[in-house]
Each structure stands twice: as C-alpha cells, then as structure tokens.
Amino acid sequence: MKSKGTKSKPILIRANEQGKVVFYGETNQTIFKITGDFINLSGIKFSECTLVKNGNTNGLLIDLNNANNCSVSSCVFVKNTVKVQYSPLVVISGNGSFNKVNNCLFSDNIDNQDVQVKITKDTCPQFSLITKNTFRNKNKVSWKNGNGGECVQVGQDPILLGNKEANTTVSHNSFTNCNGENEIISNKSSKNQYIKNYFKHNDGELVMRGGHDCIVKDNTFEGGTGGIRINGTGHHITNNSIHNVKTAIRLMYGMAKGKNEIGFYIAASDCLVSENTITGATTGILVGDSKNKDWTGKFDTQRYPSPVMQNIAPFQNKIAGNIFKKTKTTEINQ
User: Fold this and answer.
1) Is residue 86 in some structural domain?
2) How many domains does the chain have?
3) What is d(CA 270, CA 37) in angstroms, rounded to the nearest whole number?
C-alpha cells in the first residue's frame, strides 16, 4: 500500500462488516505492507495464522514500513502462531512517523511478539502510538531461552542501539494473563512513554531493559509476579499503583553505567522513583537486584564487548514520596 492520503482525506482499508473479513492459514510473506501516508487499516480479523520462514522472508501480518500517519485500528489477532523466534504479528518499521496501533485485540497468540517497534542502525520510527489495545491470555513461549514473547517491544538491541530515541508512547492498554515471558513490555530504546496501562495477573513485568530517559507513570498493576524493572539512566517512574506482587519496583545492577559505556545491562542511575503507591507487596522497592550475577557464556562478547559480571550498583537515584500499605519490607538496598 504505497498510496498517499491526507489528513482530511485518508485512505481507508476496512472490513465491510467488522470482524467478518478473516485471514487464516500459513504464510511466509507480509499480508499487509503499508508504506504510504494517512492509510487506516481497520476491522480485519487474523485467526489461526501460522507465520513461517522461507529463505530470507518471514511471515508477518502487518508492517507499517516507512509509513507516516498510518494506523491499524479495531483489528483482532487471535490464536496466531509464529515458527521463528522473536517474530511479531504487527511491526512499525523504517523511518516513518506518527503511526498508530489502536483499539485492537491480541488474544491467545502463540510463541510471538504482538507489537514491535523495530529499530536498526539505520532506521528508527518516530512518535509511534500504541494505545487502547487489549492483550490477554498469552501462554509461556516454547523457545529454549524463554524469550520472544513480549506483548509490546520498543527496540531490539539495548546494548548497541539503546541510545536511539524513538519517542514512542504506549498508553491506555490492558494486559491480562500475559505470561509469554518475563517482559510484558520491553523497552530497549530512549525517550519513550508508558502511561496509564493496566496489568492484571501477569507472569512478567514492565521492563526498562535498556535505553534512557523514559517516562513510566500512572500505570496500575493488580497481582502477578512483579511490577516495574529498571536498567538505564534518567527514567522517571511516578504515580504508579502496584498491588499484591512479590516485588513492586526493582532497580538493577549493571555491567556498565551511563549512556556512553557498552554493557549487556546498564546500571540504573539518575532515575526518579516517586509518588508510587505500593500495596500488599513482599518488597516495595528493591535497589540493587542481580548483584554480582555472572553472565559468562550467556551472550556473544564479540558482538557485545561488555563485561560479564553484573557488579555495578544502582547510583544517584532519587526515591521519595512513595506510599506503602500492607507491604512487608518497604525498601531494600543491596
């Protein structure tokens, strides 16, 4: 779809009756590749699709590639399966801007990432918006290392490309029983916002895996294994409500520090953690998780010239004004 609409006259690709146009079966190609301007794809259902690889091509349902002001709205993605690890169903890629995935349902999908903002050495989509979507019932992935099951991933290489500024906003989404992997949302780039999302009974966390200067505010967590995990610098974690989890907020050790050193993990530093309400947690805020963890043999040190010991403690973080209720230990520093 290379056509160019305008703000006042967008190009609409939509089901005649919402949810009654259904794609299913196996594919090694991209079903919808949108590269134009002001194109809105809506009302399509993708059910029991199997995405496979054939040579250099991977199956993909929707790719907003170098698109501008385009959207995927009110689509349904249910019981789809990928056969190649780290494969998304929907991807925003290239150097486009102001693209949106909104009001969609992602349910019971298998071994996949749901929505990916793809960042490479040469490309970084700007001002993407992922909003008002429902993510639910995602089982643990079958991949050996347990990775590749995020609901939302913004960036893929936090070690070498974490400084890339994507300016993505992920807001007003709900995540329920999303157990694909440890990272429900995985942030691996800089200057993104995660606002007013709702998490319920998930086996995973909202994770600042890498990147810097992100905003995580006004999110609600009800039950599940955890709340927010932080690596990187300059993040603001404010006004979140976290209830009935083991550890609500974790600031992690790293192999390196700041924005200029290369580390498989960057120690949490210069972050603001304030005005969060934590209820019924075993530990409210843990400053210094994964202390002295040894990553020898667990990543490619030729590709990533990083120390293997996670031995740099979090530093210069401001933790203030948080409210704790029925929490066994409010704060641990180690």
Assistant:
1) yes
2) 1
3) 39
CATH number, domain containing residue 311: 2.160.20.10
6 in a structural domain: no
Please give the distance of CA 2 from its chain centroid, rounded to a whole number.
28
Residuewise pLDDT in 10s, the chain (334 residues) = 899 999 999 999 999 999 999 999 999 999 999 999 999 999 999 999 999 999 889 999 999 999 999 999 999 999 999 999 999 999 999 999 999 999 999 999 999 999 999 999 999 999 999 999 999 999 999 999 999 999 999 999 999 999 999 999 999 999 999 999 999 999 999 999 999 999 999 999 999 999 999 999 999 999 999 999 999 999 999 999 999 999 999 999 999 999 999 999 999 999 999 999 999 999 999 999 999 999 999 999 999 999 999 999 999 999 999 999 999 999 999 8
| CB 84 within 8 Å of CB 110 | no
CA 155/CA 63 separation, integer angstroms: 15
CA–CA separation, 2 and 268 (whole Å): 42
Is 311 a domain residue? Answer: yes
Q: Tell whether 204 is covered by a domain.
A: yes
By residue range, what is the domain housing residue 58?
A: 11-333
